[in-house]
């Protein structure tokens, strides 16, 4: 349905959005961008061909699809229904696709507003991190209407290896929450294991090699185990983002009746990491609160 | 060094030991077995060729290698230095290899006693579970003397895909503890994630398919995620064994100064599962204490 | 400064507000009341002498002091700055005193709005529960201006045994949060202790008598210990209120950098109690999730 | 039954035992003491009138009652059934009363051995700390035979304000465990509360004064709250003793099926305090792991 003449807007050229918008341009779509800090938009235009707009509202005019990848609920609110938000100018039948990790509540709220205004909204949080965005191999979890999903899936595939419809509005965000809950408990377990092994005098890199072949294996063990042993954390998914995400999970759980003891605890443990100055460290830095002497 | 004429004894024909001893027999070694409950030894002899003994002490006489795979520290103590234990009759230069999961303390203690008596002891706990034992693809983590390890490694390979020397006496057990600590936190995270997803009304099998491609992935997610959704637990690694193992970890941590908050908590959560009658359920049954209504 | 001719309004005649407003009337103040559900206002007027109003805005006109004791942040917002809120009609120099337990954020926000409009706001959450309100012996923790506090303290004393200025706007609420954090950890400890004692076959009422003389003593032990043994929970401070309060604490901690591991965990444990139908049970019902067989 | 001519032995003149034995001497009993490090026995004899013995076995000969107040299970084992232990020489009908905090298992074991040998054993752990011992106002929780208890209660009262029979052998120790479980959760709650209040900029001594009148009140708040604010911990009940005691609780819970999540977690948190060098600090030092910057 969409082709190279389709007009695409992209709001938010951060760590994730910048390369995602770039992949769309490289696929040949007509891409226009908006970034709060204009310098990044200028830089993006220099690197890829495309236009830029001064506000989300200006950007959204006449677009077929508008993407966003901003910070939190408030940020998303600002660029959609805020004073200069895209929702004021989006054409009927246009599709707004949000790639930010937000609450399911705001996703459902924006879906309803979009519906009332005659256009479409999909919540579409991603996983895969900076390198996934750069390589164009993100995993995208989508909530919204099946028909709309089917139309935009090929476009999203410009930067994704998997794009899946998870259910109604908000269910993309809920899927992402499931993902983050898994990671919180898993990383604390891994942190305690590495810490224990170090206290026990084991050669932990050898240990990780051996046990990553069995029931203790995880992506985190394979991709973060050795950097945890090296106490190297200046990369990856930042602790501050993780706390935001866990906050979303805990708030949602308060509503849906789920009980998340370890998630709640690990969220507090991340407060310890922040207290140590680890706001921008990778989430695997959870181990630093155990090995205080270092 | 060892060949088909080598004489091998095996103590403990339980879920794990039975097939392990079977693989040794199938490789052509001269295998003699001992089991506390004699019926299992008789059954084993019927299935594989080999002899049996009435006590560990009787079994150990004249052996080149004696293996054990029994329950806990007390059980290992009984079959080694107990009244009818193998240590009373083992020949000088023989090797005793223990595959039980025990404390590092008893491993170090038996190593010292063996040394004083002129024979050898290796602690060699395994991972891979019942199916790993049956298929002969266990992972074996060994503590003890390098020279002895090098000699017996080919024999152990009869039922293992990886046999690694982790360090001195006790370090096999310590490695296994690291493995179990990883699993405890990881499974609680996974349990909370599945529980949350269910409360949120997500199609959890679809969710697991999607997120198992990224940073939340784990062996447990791939191999236990869907059975957790189905609430099927009559298989796998029993909760009672897990509590024994976590007890070993927590006792060791008390000595080496490691702090294991989530491990300690999950150990208590397993008490809830036992309280529900889950003593023999797979460790993934941790989720049952969250979904109490089911 | 205030005397029997002072005009006092009271918003929210719930479990707490009803008797509090009653004490003010009994002290001889001219009390007018507002309650969302009018029947309670009618009942209150029948029991005490006084008038009533149809909206907070109507009530507030010409008042010297207006009190509120409603539910959460949203409720307080509704009765103050909401469409029919009291802030639209309050006279200059009047004082608005809120007895609800809310966030410190909304207390600070309402303080600023009041200041801009020329009247005064005090956040004044209470402890002491229903019986404290009925007996007029509450503890009141106040945040706001010292001068204003000094003027209204004698009035508040109508239903309080202690009224203390804790600091600037919001600090009343923060003090109440400290109170709730203490209680959460304390009650979980007490729950585990009673549960353990029961599993151990002890006569727990005797045990509580003995240990309440020493370092384990607490108000909760003395006032809730035996009802916990009896599993009687249809009274006291409701689990739903407690979760609201712990939610406030955890949100505030996210801002001020405090790390509250046990508070976060106990908050999740209360989700288990809610899941058992304990929404209105006393907070000491935390023990019910340990003794699942009962 | 016992009078000033009764012969009393006391094993273990540590922080607790020294003043306890002193009170017995001051009451006029014929007291003989044993201490592993003889200097303390000499010092004790210089301060109080009495004799001393070179071994527990020597001490116990001809005694009517022998008390002990040593460290842990192993220490108690040493002074009773160890090579030079008191159990080898105790006369029939004599009573051995242990004031150490130990497992219930060893209490039951020694009770049985005593019974077989024709004398009596009571487990009688205490609470009240060093100052309680010095002032003679301990609380004593006793397990054993009612008849024997009745006879010795007046003697124990020399240093106790309350001496209560809790039930059969071991139930004194189990009662003490209930006490310690209460304290663990309570102190962590109090620590988080003080920490939160400090982060919030409250005057915490004022806050403690205010809230100690209500539902958050506890002995620890009244007796340790302000020293926690001052970060003063060089007194009181040592962290190392607490970890020993919590270890006993957790081991017992493993047997009786109780689930103790917060107790297990706080036990791990105490590992953090030990890691900071707090082995001899008062248990209220739990707060130091939250305020890491200090
Ligand atoms: N099951 C699993 O998936 C895994 C288990 N392990 C570890 O392997 C060990 C064995 O497990 P598993 O085979 O499942 O256990 P089982 O309970 O199936 O078998 C235990 C074996 O040990 C024998 N045994 C136990 N106690 C004594 C004793 N005091 N004296 C003599 N023999 C004794 C039993 O004899 P009898 O037949 O008479 O009862 C039986 O042969 C454990 O340490 C476990 O933690 C490690 C990895 C995976
Ligand atoms: N109960 C207790 O033991 C204690 C309670 N508190 C705190 O005191 C406050 C009140 O508690 P409690 O009296 O028990 O609560 P209740 O539920 O018994 O009463 C709440 C009162 O607030 C009114 N109200 C709620 N929302 C609104 C709204 N949006 N607009 C107008 N009126 C509203 C209710 O009106 P309506 O009758 O129409 O529902 C009712 O009068 C809470 O913040 C609570 O946390 C503090 C200490 C102890
Ligand atoms: N301190 C407190 O506030 C409280 C302590 N308790 C409990 O009371 C008991 C004693 O505590 P406390 O007095 O503080 O401890 P201390 O360490 O001050 O004293 C321990 C005493 O036991 C003796 N002892 C230890 N091990 C042995 C052994 N193997 N053989 C012979 N004697 C031994 C020591 O002898 P030596 O002088 O030679 O070292 C010393 O006399 C402990 O179980 C503790 O948990 C209970 C309540 C409060």
TrEMBL record, chains A, B, C, D:
| Active-site residues, record numbering mapped to chain | 176
An example molecular function term from Gene Ontology annotations: NADP binding
Q: Which residues form the 3-hydroxyisobutyrate dehydrogenase-like NAD-binding domain?
A: 170-288
Q: Name one Pfam family in it.
A: NAD_binding_2
Q: Which InterPro entries match?
A: 3-OH-isobutyrate_DH-rel_CS, 6-PGluconate_DH-like_C_sf, 6PGD_dom2, 6PGDH_NADP-bd, HIBADH-like_NADP-bd, HIBADH-related, NAD(P)-bd_dom_sf
* Domain 6-phosphogluconate dehydrogenase NADP-binding, first and last residues per copy: 7-167
Keywords, comma-separated and alphabetical: NAD, Oxidoreductase
GO BP annotations of the record are: organic acid catabolic process
Q: Is the keyword Nucleotide-binding assigned to this protein? A: no
- Signal peptide: which range, if any? none
Q: What family, per the record?
A: Belongs to the HIBADH-related family.
What is the protein named?
NAD-binding protein
Q: Which organism is it from?
A: Beggiatoa leptomitoformis
């Amino acid at each position: 349905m969409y082709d190279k003449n389709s007009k695409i807007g992209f709001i938010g050229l951060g760590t994730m959005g910048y390369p995602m918008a770039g992949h769309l341009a490289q696929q040949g779509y007509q891409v226009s961008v908006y970034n709060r800090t204009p310098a990044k938009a200028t830089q993006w235009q220099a690197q890829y061909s495309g236009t830029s707009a001064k506000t989300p509202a200006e950007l959204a005019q006449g677009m077929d699809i508008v993407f966003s990848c901003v910070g939190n609920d408030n940020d998303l609110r600002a660029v959609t229904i805020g004073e200069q938000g895209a929702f004021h100018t989006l054409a009927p039948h246009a599709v707004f696709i949000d790639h930010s990790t937000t609450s399911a509540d705001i996703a459902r709220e924006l879906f309803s507003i979009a519906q009332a205004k005659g256009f479409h909204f999909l919540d579409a949080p991603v996983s895969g991190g900076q390198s996934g965005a750069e390589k164009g191999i993100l995993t995208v979890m989508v909530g919204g209407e099946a028909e709309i999903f089917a139309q935009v899936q090929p476009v999203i595939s410009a930067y994704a290896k998997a794009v899946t419809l998870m259910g109604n509005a908000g269910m993309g965000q809920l899927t992402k929450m499931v993902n983050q809950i898994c990671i919180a408990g898993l990383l604390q377990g891994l942190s305690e294991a590495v810490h224990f092994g170090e206290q026990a005098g084991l050669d932990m890199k050898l240990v990780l090699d051996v046990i990553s072949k069995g029931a203790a294996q995880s992506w985190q063990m394979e991709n973060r185990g050795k950097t945890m042993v090296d106490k190297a954390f200046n990369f990856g998914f930042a602790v501050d983002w993780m706390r935001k995400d866990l906050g979303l999970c805990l708030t949602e759980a308060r509503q849906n009746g789920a009980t998340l003891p370890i998630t709640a605890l690990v969220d507090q443990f991340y407060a310890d990491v922040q207290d140590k100055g680890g706001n921008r460290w990778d989430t695997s830095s959870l181990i630093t609160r155990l090995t205080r002497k270092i």
